Amino acid sequence: MKKFKSKKKRKKLKLKLFIFVFFFIFSYVFMVKLLSSNKLKDNILKDDVNYVRFNLSKTVENQITKLINNPINLLNKNVKNAFNNVKTASKTIYENKEVKEPLNVDINNPIIYIYNTHQTETYADYSVYDAAYLLKEKLNQAGLSSYLEEQSMKVFLDTNGLKYYNSYTASRNYLDLAKKNYSSLKYFFDIHRDSVSKDISTITYNGKSYAKVLFVVGTDNPNNALNKETTNKLNEIIKSKVPNISRGIVYHGGKGFNGVYNQDVSSEVFLIEVGGKDNTKEEVENTIEVLNNAIVEYIKGVI
């Protein structure tokens, strides 16, 4: 009688274990499919641009290595396929956004560097990284080879025990590395968004809504005068595209301000606030189109 009960308990235990493993893997496969959807990726981007990319593959490997190595014939094929999908997603979280570079652009020798010092800034339904990515794509399509910084500012700050107000230390680190790796770089664009209300950050022109731009020049750097000159040129060009789309240029320095904003690197370092926290994806993208056209005109005029 005891042996019979013991066997019965073992069978129940095996059944429970099998059910647990089955639902664990089913949930995992379902998560991977969700991760492939644009909606979830957009939500992830609002929290941190690259943190998922840095940690997803490693976390998944640690959690399912034992399951993959075990001979679970019924589910083994699905698990391996799901694992390969996660590795692919880890390689680039923006896979669905990428397009083929035009043939006339030398992507190995970019002349434009685009980055976000405050990489986790978001809009109503968009992020500054999304805006920077779109700008890069448009500039490449226009024949101006551009490089977008994808490394995480947050990870750099956390790794080095720095606070959010040290963000320019992080962006300067990546900017210097980019210059070292690509000596061809000449123009640098730091894309931000402001915290002002929507009535201040938005304009309607010819029936289309735009997120207004604001240029920032630091006064605590050796290139102060030159940065003012180049920023003013770009500002005038963008105003000629859409009247009143620009809120102008502000000059920051002294106590309470960074005052440099990486602009000591070159007179061609631009800090641009695109819209505010309440602007929509459509409004920001409309402005990026205008900004792209202004940059193309500016650079081709300089060249």
UniProtKB/TrEMBL annotation:
Q: Write the protein's name.
A: Stage II sporulation protein P
Domain of life per record? Bacteria
Lineage of the species this protein comes from: Bacteria, Bacillati, Bacillota, Bacilli, Candidatus Aphodocola
Organism this protein belongs to = Candidatus Aphodocola excrementigallinarum
Q: Which NCBIfam families match?
A: spore_II_P (TIGR02867)
- Supply the InterPro entries for this chain: Spore_II_P (IPR010897)
